[in-house]
Amino acid sequence: MTQKDITFVADFLTEHFNEAPELYNRKGKYFNVERVGQYLKDEDDDLVSPPNTEGNQWFNFLKNSTHLKESPLLFPYYPEKSLHFVKRQMEGVIDQCLQKPADVIGKSVHQAVCMSLYKTSQSEDSTPQLFKLPFLWNDKTSNIHYVLFTILENSISKIYILRRHTDTSRSVSNGILAVDFGNFLNNSINESSDSRCYSCLDAHFYDDETVTVVLKESVEQEGKERVLAQLPLS
Q1: In this predicted structure, what is the pLDDT of residue 223?
Q2: Cα(82)–Cα(104) distance, rounded to whole angstroms?
Q3: Tens-of-pLDDT digits for all 234 residues of the chain?
Q4: Residue 135, Cα to own-chain centre: how many angstroms?
Q5: How far apart are CA 178 and CA 155, in angstroms?
Q6: Residues 6+ apart with CB under 8 A from 84
Q7: Which pTM value belongs to this model?
Q8: 50 Cβ neighbours under 8 A, 6+ residues apart
Q9: In whole angstroms, what is the distance from residue 100 CA to residue 108 CA?
Q10: Phi, psi angle pair for 99, to nearest 5°
Q11: What is the pLDDT of residue 207?
């Protein structure tokens, strides 16, 4: 160690570990602990060396503001407590804030309709993920909620569109339908090919009347393996 290192350690001990007679009756050690470490202790006891807030601009600002001084929107300050204590207090407040909305929303949700999309085997093997890429869209003009999705397995070239009215007491025609892409682009890309088939990689609503899809050619050829198409919902 260099002399500079020894001086640094000596200064540290001198500053932080002086005896403090006024703390003799306190629980635990009666010397000043290192001032950063005290904030990290997971204890409810008061800090041994609380910070000096004199001259702090934020506290002075709050003190001189009649509206903010007692505002319930400001999280209370605990100058005598560690960060662990404050963290627990804040978590409690957040949990309390979220509990009421969770109860209200939970009680308001109910099943409007049940639809069987596919069946899986009852074997003990893990069930494969067959439901893919659900995308939600709400048409506020006609009050209809849409869900776009694909089902992997036998219908890789199809995209399904589920429609429900936001008013669950009302129904809409064609509640669920499938769009089969298959070889519908053959005429525009290669008129002589009958074997080209397309599956859907992704699909999103572009607006209330248009769906954008990314199609993949089943037999990939360089430069022709992806197609971006916009389809009118009608």
Answers
A1: 57
A2: 35
A3: 788 888 888 887 777 666 666 665 666 554 555 666 777 777 777 887 777 888 888 888 888 888 887 888 887 778 788 888 888 888 998 999 899 899 999 898 888 778 887 777 666 566 666 777 788 999 988 899 999 988 876 567 788 899 998 887 888 877 888 888 876 665 555 555 555 678 888 889 999 999 998 888 776 666 567 888 898 988
A4: 16
A5: 10
A6: 40, 41, 42, 43
A7: 0.51
A8: 79, 80
A9: 12
A10: -65, -45
A11: 92
Please report how many Cα atoms fall inside a 13 Å half-sphere around the Cα of residue 23, on the Cβ side: 15
Per the structure block, which two tokens stand in for 196? 């080209």
Closest CA to 132 of 200, 219, 229, 209: 200
3-state secondary structure of 100: helix
Pairing of strands 158-165, 176-180: antiparallel
Residue 146: φ, ψ to 5°: -115, 150
- Residue whose pair of structure tokens reads 């008013």 in the numeric block: 167
Phi, psi of 59, deg, nearest 5 = -65, -40
Task: Report the distance separating Cα 68 and Cα 58, nearest Å.
Answer: 11
Residue-wise burial string across 43-62, b where 16 or more C-beta atoms lie within 10 A, e elsewhere = eeeebbeeeeeeeeeeeeee
SS3 of 59-95: the string is HHHHHCCHHHHCCCCCCCCCCCCCHHHHHHHHHHHHH
Q: Structure tokens of 213?
A: 């899809």
